[in-house]
Design goal:
single chain, mainly alpha, 3 helices
């Protein structure tokens, strides 16, 4: 396995982990957004620009969700 593949495996695994932990607090939603961004970078490094583009959109969706969750926490 080359370093880009390992990077992709770790970033997508982080996405799964933080998505599962999102109900525990807004910091997990932010971590999910960061993992989406890393997965998007992985997609672009692999030359799979559609994957990179979709992950970029997911990053924006997660950041928007984070801002709403953060605003609702006292």
């Amino acid at each position: 396995m080359d370093s880009v593949t390992i990077f992709g495996l770790l970033s997508v695994s982080a996405m799964l982990l933080f998505y599962a932990l999102e109900p525990r607090g807004p910091h997990y939603v932010l971590a999910f957004a960061a993992a989406c961004a890393l997965s998007g970078i992985y997609g672009l490094l692999q030359g799979a620009w559609p994957f990179g583009l979709v992950e970029t959109v997911w990053t924006l969706v997660a950041l928007r969700r984070w801002s709403k969750v953060r605003a609702s926490v006292p």
